């Protein structure tokens, strides 16, 4: 029977470091070399950061959080739905886009920290796709 992933490293510390765009292992090296491109190896501790999968999870989580936390409460304010669409829609879309673009790298960093703490690597993902082929 398959066991759930065990926490190998302190979860809060690893996720916190990822949220700050730092290596989840040492907290010193940079996590990203570009906006969302993860460095292959940490510059400070030489940890292999490219092996922690962060494919669709951060994007889904960002959409969930931004949609429910930002957009949902906006509809409680009558000015949003009583104002003309040519005024409210561009303002809301711009604000939503800005919040999403600011949140996505932080959430992706936290996700990588979570994968690091749980010990989930890209090798694990390949095992699951091999199971489906059988």
Main beta sheet strand tally, sense and closure: none
Low-confidence stretches: none
Strand content: under 5%
Distance between the termini: 18 Å
Helix content: 55-70%
The number of helical segments is 5
Written description of the protein model:
The protein starts with 10 loop residues before the first helix and ends with a helix. By secondary structure, the protein is an all-alpha fold. Helix content is 58%, strand content 0%.
List keywords for this structure.
single chain, 134 residues, 0% strand
Write the layout of secondary structure elements.
Blueprint: H1 11-19, H2 57-74, H3 78-82, H4 85-118, H5 122-133
Summarize the structure.
With 134 residues, the chain is mainly alpha-helical.
């Amino acid at each position: 029977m398959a066991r759930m992933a065990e926490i190998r490293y302190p979860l809060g510390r690893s996720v916190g470091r990822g949220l700050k765009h730092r290596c989840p292992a040492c907290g010193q090296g940079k996590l990203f070399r570009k906006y969302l491109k993860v460095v292959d190896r940490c510059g400070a501790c030489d940890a292999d950061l490219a092996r922690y999968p962060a494919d669709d999870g951060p994007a889904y989580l960002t959409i969930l959080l931004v949609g429910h936390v930002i957009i949902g409460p906006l509809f409680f304010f009558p000015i949003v739905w009583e104002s003309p669409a040519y005024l409210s829609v561009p303002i809301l879309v711009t604000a939503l886009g800005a919040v999403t673009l600011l949140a996505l790298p932080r959430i992706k960093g936290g996700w990588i920290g979570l994968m690091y703490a749980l010990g989930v690597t890209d090798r694990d993902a390949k095992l699951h796709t091999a199971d489906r082929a059988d």
